[in-house]
Amino acid sequence: MAHTHESNTKRIWFVFGLLSVITVVEVALGIAKPDFLYKTDLFNMHLLNWIFIILTVAKAYYIMWAFMHLEGEKANLRWSIVAPLVFLIIYLVFILLIEGNYVFDVFKESQYKWIF
Amino acid sequence: MAATVTSTATTGKTWDGGNEPMGASYGKMMMWFFIVSDALTFSGFLAAYGFSRFKFIETWPIADEVFNHFPFMHGVDAPMYYVAFMTFILIFSSVTMVLAVDAGHQMKKTKVAIYMLLTIVGGFIFLGSQAWEWKNFIKGEYGAIETKGGAILQFVTKAEDGSYERVKLADFAAHLETDRVNNTRSNGIWFEESADLPSVSLDEVVKGFEAHPEILVRTEIIKDKHKTVLSREESLVRMKDAQIVVEGANLERNEYGHKLFADFFFFITGFHGFHVFSGVMINVLIFLNVILGTYEKRRSYEMVEKVGLYWHFVDLVWVFVFTFFYLV
User: Fold this and answer.
1) Which SS3 state, helix, strand or coil, does residue B228 take?
2) Could you give the CA distance from residue A58 to residue A40 in angstroms, rounded to a whole number?
3) What distance, in Å, lies between the first and last C-alpha atoms of chain A?
4) For FRET with B202, which of B67, B84, B153, B194 sits at 20 to 30 Å CA-CA?
5) Which residue is closest to A61 within chain B, CA to CA?
């Protein structure tokens, strides 16, 4: 289905409300930093960070689907945009963060401080 | 008719660009693929930031302590409220943009123009806020000392409830007679000039530190989510390595902590700000075209939709910058 010419205003304001609520939740959590989230680790990151990242991806989804109107595009356009981004970004982040963590360990544990 | 109302007369002519395999006009599809490549550029920057942060995970600055200013609330610790405000501005300008696109589908010229104008105003407010944020970051608040090894030492006093409060260099530095002068082009070799001198000299900080027993050194090292504070004896030892007075931030060093922190901040928010700026400029062009009735004559407001895509993308990037610079 492509653009129908009737108005989408209701949906737009709904998404705006949703994005605002998510941002408020993020800021509130960022200021309060509840200990059980902040001091519990999962895969080298505390839970609070995971929550932030998930909320961010949720926001990105709504911006792309509702505001950039991907929900109204054909599936092949949608996939040719989303698939490369998802794959390449996860790949890059995965490699760089593992490497960063490794370099940190070398600095910390080994005797060589500035060998690279 | 094809899925979207294309702007030119190519519709229907398969071999003249009228064929739309993805159901989007040529211009719109190319805007999308530009956005894909730009998104990858930004994720490269943010991933590099993540790499450096993981590399120095034990000493990285804590964002809440760096970005805690709010207009007209001087000296109040207000972490994140200001960036949250900036995020709202950008999300809201995204909403007015999408409303403009929506009005365009219904061929309502005045409505499109009004919403475009609101979007432009939102963009300018965001840029202004960005500038203010940079100003605070560059100016700094407390000042710090860099050691021979390149570590940053900050200064605190212990409050009655056992927590630590930051102290400004100027609050404890001694006042010494000094003959230091700023080396400018006019009083030395013409091609050499020094950076601005810090408001206090290294000697003044060291002497002042020795004279004030209540002042302690806070290191960059994070333990249990807090920067460690040294005892008075350890502080005195650590201060023997003092080398440079650091006030505010530049590309070489910053008072907040690791050098790379400021570099990434300037580079990523700067690159994003540049995108916002060009977005505002393109919006202005399209706004003028709307006023002039260009799209009315064309019977299609698809150009508004295309710049809309770019504008939402800028918002999208900010959502990630917000998370990785201020929250995580």
Assistant:
1) strand
2) 22
3) 55
4) B67
5) B316
**What is the number of other CB atoms lying within 10 angstroms of the CB of residue B90?**
25
B155 shares its domain with B99: no
Task: Evaluate whether residue B96 is within a structural domain.
Answer: yes
ipTM: 0.88
Task: Tell me: do B210 and B313 sit in the same domain.
Answer: no
In a domain? residue B16: no
Q: Is the pLDDT of residue B197 over 80?
A: no
Per-residue pLDDT tens over the stretch B306-317 = 999 999 999 999
CB pairs < 8 Å spanning A and B: 147
Q: B127 in contact with A at a CB cutoff of 8 Å? A: no
Q: Does B182 touch chain A (CB under 8 A)?
A: no
Phi and psi at residue B307, in whole multiples of 5°?
-70, -30
Per the domain annotation, does B203 fall within a domain? yes
The pTM assigned to this predicted structure is 0.87
Q: Domain range for residue B270?
A: 24-140+261-327
Nearest CB to B80: which of A30, A53, A74?
A: A30
The predicted pLDDT at position A84 comes to 94
- Confidence at residue B15, expressed as pLDDT on a 0 to 100 scale: 66
Q: Looking at CA atoms only, how far is residue B175 from chain A in angstroms?
A: 38
Q: What is the pLDDT of residue A5?
A: 52
Domain count, chain B: 2
Residue B33's domain is classified under what CATH number?
1.20.120.80
Same-domain status, B170 and B229: yes
| CA–CA gap between residue A89 and residue B41 (Å, rounded) | 10
B contact residues 287-326, partner A, Cβ 8 Å cutoff: 308-309, 312-313, 315-316, 319-320, 322-323, 326
Q: Tell me if residue B257 falls in helix, strand or coil.
A: strand
Contact between chains at A74 and B92 (C-beta distance less than 8 A): no
Query: B154 with B226, same domain?
Result: yes
Q: For the segment B8-44, what is each residue's pLDDT rounded down to a tens digit?
A: 555 556 666 667 778 888 888 899 999 999 999 999 9
Q: Are residues B303 and B196 in the same domain?
A: no
Q: Categorize the per-residue pLDDT at A109 as very low, low, confident or very high, splitting at 50, 70 and 90.
A: confident
Question: Are residues B98 and A60, on separate chains, in Cβ contact within 8 Å?
Answer: no
Mutation choice for B interface testing from A96, A108, A116 by most B CBs within 10 A: A96
Q: Does any CB of chain A come closer than 8 Å to the CB of residue B23?
A: yes
In a domain, B220, yes or no: yes
Q: Are residues B107 and B187 in the same domain?
A: no
Same domain, residue pair B201 and B101: no
**Nearest by Cα to B313 from B42, B29, B12:** B42
The residue with tokens 């909320």 is A55
Torsion of CA B308, A8, A70, B17, to 10 degrees: -70
